[in-house]
């Protein structure tokens, strides 16, 4: 790229991609209780033969985050440390974007800190949020693995059940590490996947990934950086000033996790597919086995599907609002705004290997499927009402449009124009008004209070 702005420097992308698409064997056969003792003996052999890279650190939760961190770091490979001029470039781009955003939203600036991150910085700083996101799902999956064992199998397993929990945590950690390692090299900002991963009130750009991203576009690189800074700043405004939003995202994930159940037939195939001698002597076979959770694939229930729909809708509303505000703020100032907006839409719609990994691992698709519909709703609402009316919809989660509203926005827009967002009644406030009104009517009738 010949037009890198603000001191961003181009990097040679010579990272060694160490991720292999490992697959488990898929033998046929039914459950045999006599095989369970052999299964747990094999699991013991497997753990005793773990290499130092897979077995370091104590696992204190449902996910082995030591494995996740080690594998993610290996996936990142080589990287170049950030320079002071790149941190300054990010601060300048964010400062400019904030000035323009002020004109198009009632939500004030929420950024107190800006940063330029390397992929490793991203891994280290976002891990706390990934823990919060993944723990409920992994916990339920581990519980489902043991709860779905037949009665005679649980009786035979005895103290070896703890070993099964370690296996689940290690397998999950392996998948998580591969996904995070790929994401760390691809993300452009801290909110690139739609979740608030950075510390509160922090705006982050990843210059190395942005430089690679810019090389594929026939657009001024400075415009790209300011555009991405505006998207990041808009996300931070939303999460900083809508206090329930982050918690609602995480709560929806927990609702999904609560309904996880495990198909025990996967355990049967897993038991028959283990060759303990090969696992002990072949580290690559161990990594292949530990890197795949296909043997314990969870089943999706109707309740889970409803939670997934709510999550997808909320992600689409967030992305659609950001797109609307950024387009209005930059459209007259940066000619390439429309082209960049479409590029980001396609990027989110198609996803990548990392997003596919997460979809396989936790059943959660972080892609907002109705992004176009959501952006269209916010744009029409702005035209029909105004900026204040549009942003007022974020005042309470019950005010937000649902999936049906995204498909047919006219009724929702009419409700907002008619006072839907400004006259929303909090349940407690409504109760207090009802009590006050009843008391007033009694006094007017002369009844005893």
Short description:
This protein is mainly α and 449 residues long. It has helices spanning 34-48, 52-55, 65-76, 84-101, 119-147, 151-157, 161-186, 207-215, 221-241, 245-258, 265-273, 276-281, 283-290, 302-330, 337-350, 353-362, 371-384, 387-392, 403-407, 410-417, 427-445; strands spanning 113-116, 202-205, 261-262, 298-299. The strands form two sheets. A two-stranded parallel ribbon has the order 1-2.
The proportion of residues in beta strands is under 5%
> What is the straight-line distance between the termini?
78 Å
In spatial order, strands of the major sheet run 1-2
Instruction: Report the count of strand segments.
Output: 4
The H/E string reads HHHHEHHHEHHHEHHHEHHHHHHHH
Radius of gyration: 26 Å
Overall, the morphology is globular
Low-confidence stretches: 11-31, 42-57, 289-295, 420-430
- The helix count comes to 21
The average pLDDT value, as a whole number, equals: 76
Structural class determined from secondary elements: mainly alpha
Description:
The protein has 449 residues and is an all-alpha fold. It has 21 helices and four strands. Strands 1-2 form a two-stranded parallel ribbon. Strands 3-4 form a two-stranded antiparallel sheet. Helix 5 (119-147) packs antiparallel against helix 7 (161-186). Mean pLDDT is 76; it is low at 11-31, 42-57, 289-295 and 420-430.
């Amino acid at each position: 790229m010949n037009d890198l702005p603000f001191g961003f420097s181009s990097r040679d992308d010579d990272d060694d991609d160490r991720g292999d698409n490992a697959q488990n064997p898929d033998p046929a056969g039914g459950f045999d209780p006599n095989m369970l003792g052999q299964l747990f003996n094999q699991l013991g052999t497997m753990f005793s033969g773990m290499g130092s890279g897979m077995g370091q650190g104590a696992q204190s939760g449902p996910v082995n985050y030591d494995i996740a961190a080690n594998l993610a770091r290996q996936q990142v490979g080589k990287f170049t440390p950030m320079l002071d001029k790149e941190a300054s470039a990010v601060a300048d781009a964010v400062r400019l974007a904030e000035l323009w955003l002020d004109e198009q939203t009632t939500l004030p600036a929420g950024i107190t800190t800006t940063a330029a991150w390397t992929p490793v910085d991203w891994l280290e700083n976002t891990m706390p949020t990934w823990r919060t996101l993944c723990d409920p799902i992994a916990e339920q999956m581990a519980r489902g693995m043991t709860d779905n064992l037949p009665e005679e199998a649980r009786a035979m397993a005895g103290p070896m059940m703890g070993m099964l929990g370690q296996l689940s945590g290690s397998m999950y950690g392996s998948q998580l590490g591969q996904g995070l390692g790929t994401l760390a090299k691809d993300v452009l900002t801290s909110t690139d996947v739609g979740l608030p991963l950075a510390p509160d009130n922090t705006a982050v750009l990843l210059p190395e990934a942005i430089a690679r991203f810019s090389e594929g576009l026939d657009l001024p690189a400075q415009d790209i950086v300011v555009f991405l800074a505006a998207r990041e700043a808009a996300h931070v405004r939303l999460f900083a000033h809508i206090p329930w939003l982050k918690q609602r995202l995480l709560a929806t994930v927990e609702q999904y996790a609560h309904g996880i159940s495990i198909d025990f037939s996967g355990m049967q195939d897993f038991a028959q597919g283990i060759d303990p001698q090969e696992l002990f002597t072949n580290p690559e076979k161990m990594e292949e086995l530990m890197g795949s959770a296909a043997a314990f694939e969870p089943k999706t229930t109707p309740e889970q599907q409803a939670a997934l729909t709510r999550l997808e809708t909320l992600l689409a509303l967030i992305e659609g609002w950001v797109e609307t505000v950024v387009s209005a703020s930059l459209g007259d100032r940066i000619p390439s705004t429309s082209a960049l907006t479409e590029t980001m839409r396609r990027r989110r719609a198609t996803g990548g290997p990392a997003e596919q990994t997460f979809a396989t691992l936790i059943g959660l698709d972080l892609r907002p499927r109705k992004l176009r519909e959501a952006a269209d709703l916010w744009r029409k609402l702005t035209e029909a009402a105004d900026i204040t009316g549009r942003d007022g919809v974020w005042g309470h989660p019950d005010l937000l449009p649902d999936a049906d509203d995204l498909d047919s926005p006219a009724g929702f827009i009419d409700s907002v124009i008619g006072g839907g967002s400004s006259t929303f009644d909090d349940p407690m406030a409504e109760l207090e008004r009802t009590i006050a009104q009843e008391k007033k009517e009694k006094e007017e009738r002369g009844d005893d209070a």
